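**User:** Here is a favour to ask of a fellow structure person. Please take any protein you like and set down a full record of it. No explanation is needed for now; the record alone will do.

**Assistant:**
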Amino acid sequence: MISQVFTTSIGGDPELVLETHHMHLEAPNWTRDSRALVLNGDGVLWRFDLGSHDLDRIPISGVPELNNDHVLDIDGEHAFVSANDGHIYRAPLAGGRAERVTNETGRQQFLHGVSHDGSTLAYVGLEPGDGDVRGQANIFTIPAQGGPDHQVTFGTAPADGCEFSPDDEWIYFNTEAFSPGQAQIARIPVNGGEPEQLTFDERVNWFPHLSPDGTAAVYLSYPLGTTGHPGGRDVELCVVADDWSEPVRRLPLWGGQGTINVPSWSPTGDRFAYVAYQP
């Protein structure tokens, strides 16, 4: 499998910045100085320098193998990461020991968002499943330094991909609440309430990511009938303006899981990053 990391502007041509068959890379986000991308690969974090094109492992200790859900802290020196033990940790980007943030809840906890004031994390809490049946997933928040959990969504419809709006008043996410088995993009007040549906098409839409100024967003779109967010599919990245009407751009590629799971806009908001795959 070849991993291809691209960056692109809203209307420009994609630029291939990294290609490798040595490792399955996933979920790029940008460092605060816009000089590098942080990605997951082989259960650890990697830093890819956009100038030198060096790809270096970030030596984090005190944490189990990581999954691909990671978001950078606003201090520019730490990342919040989700591990395969179901917990979220805060780890130094320069390398060092990670510290656990989340509580023992019995849920698996998958990080997706950090508030823009740095105070709060938004995560997906996955309840234990029954045999082959996937457990119920809802949106929760927790103080970034640790503290009590706050449940934001309730019910039986799966929810995922939670991310704060630039003003920290809303959480954007994907949910099957409006159409069972077909995820659509929605938003909900950060303290909970009624979700507002934002996409209404005949596709399965995941992982909304808002530009830093809130004037645009990008999300991952699967064909109708897709279950969950698998990899290795013909998908689209859809770019919308802040009114969430018809996409202003559709970018077809082969990918899915790993392509754009985490916030992926540059700090200046002029580009976003994603991963495509080739067999």
Summary: The domain at 2-278 is CATH 2.120.10.30 (Neuraminidase). The mean pLDDT is 95.
